[in-house]
């Protein structure tokens, strides 16, 4: 499987306006409604059109899809620009996107399904199922404030990595592309998530590299959800991609979601763009961003292959999907674990996933906490934007975003393809959605 050189999968024009009443493609499992019937102002929603179109006009984005559902109904969906700007292929409702880290909530649901079946508790040591992670070491780097000299020390971890640690990013792992520590460099040297043939090989490499932090002491974004994918394989006895397909994608009719794009659907696969002049090598994320906001398509040789020969199933960032498919997943969670007569999780499992699992652990954002698989808005007064406490969300490295607001019975999904992503389009789409609430 080819990827961006040295970049993990998980990180790694005219306006086409649909009517306010969405087309049948988005009504497959959810009924359709006009915005006013679910408490949204159609006039205020027009602000989203103008705002996102500005990015297209300035050539800072090639195209995007936005979707809003409320009270279990699809109220608004729009497309802008092109899925392939250079070839003139317009963006469409069913365009397929690389969702990168929006894969993580799906992987977390898979883990929680096994948790419901009684295979483990969240605080069980990971090594109970993946023995290579027993006896992990922690490496620290201390800089002398006077001389600048760095002292490196390695010691046994104070406690085992747990399954909870994987899902809330407190295992002590890292990504290897954002930092300059020796641990990060070890990830790059080993080709973690880049040169691995499968999840078993990745875990074998990872277990030999020291942790960056003591387990359970700091939130640090990492490959831990990829490890969770391997956990699913070992516990279920199924290859990870098959588990997701049989247990989640087929029941939820997520027909365009998976780790590869079939040949007959490649024409719907969005081109991946990057900031103009952005390097794509192993240290790309360590470089300062280009001053220009213009974008250019990545060369074919720089792109990950999503063909049927894929063998590395990155639960942290390897999935592709559409706005409609991801809506099915979100609505299942908002419904308390079921959709269209198919139950994926118990309501109690969804409640557990959306609870605070950090309890003051450092490293995450002010006013927000982390549950199992996504961030949770905890204190609206510390937020700088509109929303509701209890909203949970996450995004992907190419700019895709989703959020689920139980209080407002609201789902928002925004799809775009720029890697690494330097705009605030997804957050602005969310802000403009909330200002359109009119009930």
Characterization of this structure:
- This protein has 439 residues and is an alpha+beta fold.
- The chain has two domains: 24-108 and 248-434, DD-peptidase/beta-lactamase superfamily (Beta-lactamase, 3-Layer(aba) Sandwich); 120-243, no CATH class.
- The chain is built from ten helices and 16 strands.
- The strands form five sheets. The protein has an eight-stranded antiparallel beta sheet with strand order 3-2-1-16-15-14-13-12, with helices on both faces. Strands 4-9 form a two-stranded antiparallel ribbon. It has a two-stranded antiparallel sheet with strand order 5-6.
- A hairpin with a 4-residue loop joins strand 12 and strand 13.
- Mean pLDDT is 92; it is low at 12-25.
Compact overview of the structure:
The protein has 10 helices and 16 strands. With 439 residues, the chain is an alpha+beta fold. The protein folds into 2 domains: 272 residues, Beta-lactamase (3-Layer(aba) Sandwich); 124 residues, no CATH class.
Topology of this protein?
Elements: H1 42-57, E1 63-70, E2 73-84, E3 89-90, E4 97-98, H2 103-116, E5 137-143, E6 150-156, H3 163-168, H4 182-190, H5 199-206, H6 224-236, H7 240-249, E7 273-275, E8 295-297, E9 320-321, H8 323-334, E10 338-339, E11 342-343, H9 347-353, E12 368-370, E13 375-377, E14 392-395, E15 401-405, E16 410-415, H10 425-434
Antiparallel strand pairs: 1-2, 1-16, 2-3, 4-9, 5-6, 7-8, 10-11, 12-13, 13-14, 14-15, 15-16
Helix pairs in contact: 1-10, 2-6, 5-6
- Roughly how many Å is the radius of gyration? 21 Å
Q: Could you spell the SSE succession in H and E letters?
A: HEEEEHEEHHHHHEEEHEEHEEEEEH
Q: How many runs of DSSP E, i.e. beta strands?
A: 16
Mean pLDDT over all positions: 92
Helix content: 10-25%
Report strand order across the widest sheet.
3-2-1-16-15-14-13-12
Number of helices: 10
CATH architecture classification of the largest domain:
3-Layer(aba) Sandwich
């Amino acid at each position: 499987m080819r990827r961006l050189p040295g970049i993990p999968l998980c990180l790694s024009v005219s306006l086409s306006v649909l009517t306010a009443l969405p087309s049948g493609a988005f009504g497959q499992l959810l009924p359709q409604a006009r915005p006013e019937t679910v408490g949204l102002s159609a006039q205020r929603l027009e602000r989203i059109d103008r705002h996102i179109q500005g990015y297209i006009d300035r050539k800072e984005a090639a195209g995007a899809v936005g979707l809003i559902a409320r009270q279990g109904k699809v109220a608004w969906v729009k497309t802008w620009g092109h899925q392939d700007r250079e070839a003139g292929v317009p963006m469409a409702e069913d365009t397929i996107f690389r969702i990168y880290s929006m894969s993580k909530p799906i992987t977390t649901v898979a883990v929680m399904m096994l948790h419901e079946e009684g295979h483990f508790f969240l605080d069980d040591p990971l090594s109970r199922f993946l023995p290579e992670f027993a006896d992990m070491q922690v490496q620290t780097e201390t800089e002398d404030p006077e001389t600048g000299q760095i002292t490196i020390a390695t010691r046994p971890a104070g406690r085992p990595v747990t399954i909870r640690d994987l899902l809330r990013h407190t295992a002590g792992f890292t990504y290897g592309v954002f930092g300059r520590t020796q641990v990060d460099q070890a990830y790059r040297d080993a080709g973690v998530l880049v040169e691995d043939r499968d999840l078993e090989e990745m875990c074998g490499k990872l277990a030999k590299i020291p942790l960056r932090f003591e387990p359970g002491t700091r939130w640090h974004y990492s490959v831990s959800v990829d490890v969770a994918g391997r956990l699913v394989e070992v516990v279920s006895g199924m290859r990870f991609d098959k588990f997701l397909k049989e247990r989640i994608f087929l029941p939820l009719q997520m027909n365009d979601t998976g780790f590869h794009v079939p040949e007959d659907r490649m024409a719907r696969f969005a081109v991946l763009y990057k900031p103009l002049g952005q390097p794509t090598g192993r240290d790309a994320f360590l470089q300062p961003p280009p001053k220009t906001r213009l974008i250019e398509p990545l060369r074919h040789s720089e792109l990950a292959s999503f063909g049927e020969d894929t063998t590395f199933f990155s639960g942290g960032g390897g999935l592709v999907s559409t706005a409609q498919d991801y809506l099915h997943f979100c609505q299942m969670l908002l419904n308390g674990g079921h959709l269209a007569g198919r139950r994926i999780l118990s309501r109690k499992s969804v409640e557990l996933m959306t609870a605070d699992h950090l309890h003051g652990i450092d490293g995450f954002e002010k006013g927000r906490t982390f549950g199992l698989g996504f961030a949770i808005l905890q204190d609206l007064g510390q937020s700088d934007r509109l929303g509701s406490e209890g909203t949970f969300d996450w995004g992907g490295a190419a700019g895709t975003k989703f959020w689920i607001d139980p209080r407002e019975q609201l789902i928002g999904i925004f799809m775009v393809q720029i890697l690494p992503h330097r705009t605030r389009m997804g957050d602005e789409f969310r802000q403009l959605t909330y200002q359109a609430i009119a009930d």
